[in-house]
Specification:
Blueprint lengths: L2 H29 L2 E7 H11 L3 H11 L3 E5 L3 H6 L4 E4 H11 L5 H9 L2 H6 L4 E5 L2 H14 L5 E6 L2 E6 L3 H4 L8 H9 L3 E5 L8 H13 L4 E3 L12 H10 L3 E5 L11 H7 L4 E6 L2 H6 L2 H14 L4 E4 L9 H21 L3 E2 L12 H21 L4 H19 L4 H32 L7 H26 L3 H4 L8 H20 L5 H12 L5 H19 L11 H14 L5 H19 L3 H23 L5 H36 L1
Parallel strand pairs: 1-2, 1-11, 1-12, 2-7, 8-9, 9-10, 10-11
Antiparallel strand pairs: 3-4, 4-6, 5-6
Helix pairs in contact: 1-17, 1-20, 3-16, 11-12, 12-13, 15-16, 17-18, 17-19, 17-20, 19-20, 19-22, 19-26, 19-27, 20-26, 20-27, 20-28, 22-27, 26-27, 26-28
């Protein structure tokens, strides 16, 4: 048995392992099937205020529309000031007022100002001053601030029913920090039958007792899920294990805010989720600014896209308020948004209710090694296509298998998994591209008549299937809770887009122009550089360059070049019509280009075959990119890929028909 057959057998065995893992992953995803629409309490308080409605009646209306949960933020100094329960100033402003009137209406604060020297008044000018006459608010703030502000940075003032605090903290930042929950808010939400979702905030110097108090509140209101507020998780950094252990013990889930790749998760989330057995639920919401900027349909489309493409199961809703519209309009618009999203949830076969966490999923080291062996074997096949000898291939394969296995069983397992996934995203598309070029070479050199339709569809399917094997390998080796919840993610998207294209150019010259050795290869390069450039060549190069720049700049989750308004509307149409929307660059560009490149080869046009082949390569390599987004739903990724193939083949055949007819008409005229 020759080496090529052995490598194919290894790839086949690895593929079987990958498929088994992927099937199990799909089972886990299928159980993660309940979507919860959660309203932000603060924003609905604002809606009630703007419309002149009672908060209870507003929330009741939203509940009847399909709102399941309500997220409750901690009290902040800013909230208390807005509600008129405290007065908030800088000490220097209070001093100026005191010097003018000598009467602030707060004896405790006046006595404090009298005790300050001129130097201290200047030194403490930017300290925050909080005053209140409500003893309940005073006691709440005294307990909260004592925990969150060092002793030397806080003055607690009290005299004859006048209360004040002087705080050494930056005003703009500190007044928005959480200070604990107003239990009356939690109680109201609970009494209306909502799922209560507290937004807990961590703070510097948090102690075990503070964490226990938070958990006691969660137990009191039968809380099932918490979404952390701010930039870090509860207990970060030293107390995460303790906080997570209490969450695990009390069966409390964590909402993990979905962020674009490369953007920072809340600090400590990876560690917290690991200690909490990955009891996570992905959360997606549109920011407050975006909620007011976008129209209702665009907001719903974004929610829908998060649910379908990124496995989001908590839709975080902020009330949309249009100040120049009537109260009834504002209430009805928010109700309609909830009702429409509820319909979409049911339409795609998911349930509406209290969200459940994704079941914990991990792969054994043996499974990871078996999958990686298939990737290594595919890499050796690729090197074999480039003419590397069997002896070198065998040594490279053994060395690669040993090193990869050692990394996967070591403490660098994460690095090993990501490296194998990245290698798979480069090697398998390159193999598909190599097969595609080999078949074009056979067509250009053909010595017998071939059926265009049969030949082109065969090459089309096989090229894409080879890349699809790599996609399944990535989906399997990264089938782990931390990747599926996007706590961690695939890295190297740009490389997986660029390197297969470079391989295409290299292998096209080697294969099509018979440059099988270095000397011949360099001669072919010189011939290529010395060709007479025609106008159509320049036009083609410019067009290809523009498309290439757009193509690279639009990879990843935060593309430099944004989609046009027309394209977004087209995407929305496909998403709501097909659910699993095929990728535009696949079914409109890359996949049809495979058929067109083969047509060019049938017409013996190496130049056009080369140009079309570049776009065809995009279709082949784009498949693995779809599956590199492990946070996406695997069945949706498979469906959108297959739909893309069908549409791409159809569009390609139609394009060939039009081109062929056009060329024949041109020949007749001349």
């Amino acid at each position: 048995m020759n080496l090529k057959k052995i490598l194919i057998i290894i790839i086949a065995l690895s593929l079987i392992v990958s498929v088994l893992v992927d099937v199990n992953r799909i089972k886990v995803e299928n159980k993660y099937d309940t979507v919860e629409i959660v309203g932000d309490l603060k924003s609905f308080k604002d809606l009630a205020s703007v419309t002149g409605r009672d908060l209870t009646s507003v929330l009741s209306d939203m509940k009847s529309a399909g709102l399941i949960g309500v997220a409750v933020n901690e009290v902040t100094l800013e909230n208390l000031q807005q509600s008129g329960e405290i007065s908030l100033s800088l000490l220097k402003d209070v001093i100026n007022l005191y010097l003018l009137s000598s009467n602030l209406g707060n004896e405790a604060l006046e006595d404090y100002l009298k005790s300050l020297t001129d130097k201290e008044r200047e030194q403490y000018g930017n300290y925050i001053v909080v005053t209140t006459k409500d003893v309940k608010i005073f006691n709440f703030l005294k307990e909260a601030l004592t925990k969150r502000v060092p002793e030397d940075g806080l003055k607690v003032l009290e005299k004859r029913g006048s209360y004040a605090f002087v705080i050494n903290k930056p005003k703009d930042v500190f007044i928005t920090k959480g200070l604990g929950f107003d239990e009356s808010d939690l109680g109201l939400v609970k009494s209306l039958g909502f799922d209560v979702i507290p937004r807990i905030e961590n703070f510097t110097g948090i102690k075990d007792k503070d964490i226990e108090e938070y958990v006691d509140i969660l137990k009191k209101f039968n809380v099932k899920t918490v979404i952390f507020n701010g930039t870090d998780v509860l207990g970060n950094p030293e107390k995460i294990p303790y906080a997570a252990s209490l969450f695990k013990k009390n069966d409390i889930n964590v909402g993990i805010i979905d962020v674009p790749m490369g953007k920072k998760l809340q600090e400590g989330m990876n560690k917290f989720a690991k200690f909490d057995s990955y009891k996570g639920i992905k959360v997606f919401g549109v920011s407050e600014a975006e909620t007011q900027k976008y129209d209702a349909s665009e907001i719903i489309n974004r929610w829908y896209r998060g649910m379908i493409e990124r496995n989001v199961r908590i839709i975080y809703m902020r009330a949309k308020i249009e100040h120049f519209k009537s109260a009834d309009y504002n209430i009805e618009q928010n109700k309609s948004m909830i009702e429409d999203m509820t319909k979409y949830i049911k339409k795609v076969g998911l349930k509406v209710g209290v969200a459940k966490p994704l079941s914990e999923l991990h792969q054994s080291k043996l499974t990871e090694i078996l999958i990686s062996l298939g990737v290594i074997a595919a890499g050796l096949l690729l090197l074999q296509m480039l003419g590397i000898g069997d002896y070198v291939l065998i040594l490279s394969g053994l060395l690669g298998a040993i090193l990869t296995s050692l990394v996967l069983v070591s403490r660098f397992n994460d690095l090993g998994v990501k490296a194998v996934a990245l290698a798979s995203s480069i090697i398998f598309p390159s193999l598909g591209i190599g097969y595609f070029i080999d078949k074009m070479k056979e067509i250009l050199d053909r010595k017998k008549n071939l059926s265009f339709t049969y030949t082109s569809l065969k090459i089309f399917i096989n090229s894409l299937l080879i890349s699809f094997v790599g996609a399944l390998s990535i989906a399997a080796i990264m089938a782990d809770s931390k990747y599926m919840l996007k706590i961690d993610y695939f890295r190297g998207v740009k490389l997986s887009f660029v390197l297969p294209l470079l391989f295409y150019v290299l292998y096209y010259i080697v294969k099509i122009y018979d440059a099988n050795d270095w000397k011949t290869f360099m001669e072919r390069i010189k011939e290529f550089l010395n060709i007479d450039i025609k106008v159509w060549h320049l036009v083609a190069i410019v067009i290809a360059g523009i498309i290439g720049i757009i193509y690279i700049s639009r990879t990843g989750n935060e593309p430099i070049v944004k989609p046009t308004e027309l394209e977004l509307k087209f995407r929305d149409f496909l998403e709501h019509t097909l659910v699993a929307r095929p990728r535009t660059k696949e079914f409109l560009i890359g996949d049809p280009a495979i058929i067109l490149a083969i047509y060019a080869a049938f017409k013996n046009s190496k130049g056009w075959a080369f140009i079309m082949g570049i776009f065809a390569s995009i279709g082949i390599l784009s498949i693995v990119n779809t599956f590199s987004h492990i946070g996406s739903v695997l069945p949706i990724a498979i469906e959108r890929t297959v739909i893309g193939w069908v549409l791409g083949a159809l569009i390609g055949m139609i394009a060939v028909f039009i081109v062929d007819k056009t060329l024949k008409n041109i020949k007749r005229e001349y």
